[in-house]
Amino acid sequence: MLVANLLRVASGLAYATLVIGDGAAIVDALNNVDSETKELQARVQNWSGDLFGTFPIITQSEHVLSSINDATDTAEDSDPLTAKEALGIATAVKTLATTVNGTMTAIINAHDDFEHLHIASIVLSNLETQKRASNEMSNVIIDKVPTALQAIAKNLAAPVDASFDQAIDVFSSSD
Fold it and tell me: What is the number of domains present in the chain?
C-alpha cells in the first residue's frame, strides 16, 4: 500500500515536472535564439566590410536559423501551456523582439557594404528564410498558449515580424 501511494505521488510529480518543464524548455529555446541573434548582431557591427568578413556573418546567420528551428521543435513537442508558463514566455519574447530589432538595424546599416560586395541578394534570401522560420516558431508557440491569451501572444510577436519586414524591404530594393 505504501509503495502504491509512493508510485502515485512520484508519477504525479513526474507529470507536474513535465508540464512545468514545457514552458521552461520553450523559454530556454527562445533564450538560445536570442543569444545566437545577439552574436549575429555583434558580427555584423564588428564587420569591416570586406568579403572575407562575411563568412562569419553567414555562418552565424545559419546558427540563428538552426536555433529558430530548434525552438520550433521544442514548442511542437511541448504540452499546452498554463497561463503562468505563457507569461514566462512573454518575457522571453519581448527580450527577443528587442534583440531582433537591434540585429535588423545593424544589418540595414551594413546594407551598402553588402551591396558593394554584390551579396545583398544572399542576405535577402537569408532574411526571408529566417522570417518564415520565425513565423512558424511564433505560430507553434502561440498555439500552445491558452486561448484567452493568444491575442496578446500575437501582439508580443508582431515586433519581430515588423523588424524582419523592415530589413527585407531595404534589401529587396537592392540592385
Answer: 1
Q: What is the CA radius of gyration of the chain?
A: 19
Q: What is the pLDDT of residues 3-34, one digit of tens each?
A: 333 334 333 434 443 333 489 999 999 999 99
Quote the CA–CA distance of 25 and 7 in Å, as a whole number. 26
**pTM: predicted TM-score of the whole model, two decimal places:** 0.86
User: What one-character-per-residue DSSP string does 65-133 give?
Assistant: HHHHHHHHHHHHHSPPPPHHHHHHHHHHHHHHHHHHHHHHHHHHHTHHHHHHTT-HHHHHHHHHHHHHH
Q: Tell me the residue length of the chain.
A: 175
Look up the CATH number of the domain holding residue 125. Answer: 1.10.357
d(CA 22, CA 78): 5
Grid cell 528587442 is found at: 98
DSSP 148: G
The boundaries of the domain holding residue 38 are 2-172
